[in-house]
Amino acid sequence: MSSDNGLTRREELLNVATKLFAARGYHGTRMDDVAEVVGLNKATVYHYYASKSLILFDIYRQAAQRTLAAVHDDPSWTAREALYQYTVRLLTQIAENPEGAAVYFQEQPYITEWFTDEQVAEVREKETQVYEHVHGLIDRGIASGEFYECDSHVLALGYIGMTLGAYRWLRASGRRSAVEVAQEFSIALLRGLIRDETVRTEEPLGARVATANRAGAAD
């Protein structure tokens, strides 16, 4: 069954719960609150979601899927280009759904209380995939000579924390677009990694981005 806005009832419930959890916290939101905002009785809400923790897990699953959608690597890309493209995708996803990202990080310290062991393992597995992608790109750049030697484990964790933390302030209608913020973040990281001085100065995001930027400036 669809609601007036074209969403299924389950999707509408999830959207409302995401906003309420982001504003009030998971613990501070009751199923009655969700039912009231959607305009359903609590029994109907329980028909779609048997427990509040299942709603939260669906929010987590969707947030993780959006983050994993940023994990894509074209074999023709250099390591710096791949890191930049990852950042663009990730920040675009966050800007489009900041409430989902907020719930994910606000409730993360408590998921062992809300979720089953299997659900926690699924969450951790997806987080590991993101870490391995970023870590692997930095290692690839080091191995090819594109990047300086560094502790890629520490750098990957730091960069993931910096980019994902943008959920606190990044909005689609903000002063800087997600792509512009991705450029700032990526340049800050890559200018500390790239060995070649000319590349570091003129093309830190890759030759294709530099060419597109020059063409845009010429227009």
From TrEMBL:
Q: Which GO terms describe its molecular function?
A: DNA-binding transcription factor activity; transcription cis-regulatory region binding
User: Gene3D superfamilies, alphabetically?
Assistant: Tetracycline Repressor, domain 2 (1.10.357.10)
InterPro entries with a match to the protein in the record: Homeodomain-like_sf, HTH-type_TetR-like_transc_reg, HTH_TetR, KstR2_TetR_C, Tet_transcr_reg_TetR-rel_C_sf
Q: Which SUPFAM superfamilies does the entry mention?
A: Homeodomain-like, Tetracyclin repressor-like, C-terminal domain
**Coiled coil (UniProt feature):** none
PROSITE patterns given for it?
Answer: HTH_TETR_2 (PS50977)
Q: What is this protein called?
A: TetR family transcriptional regulator
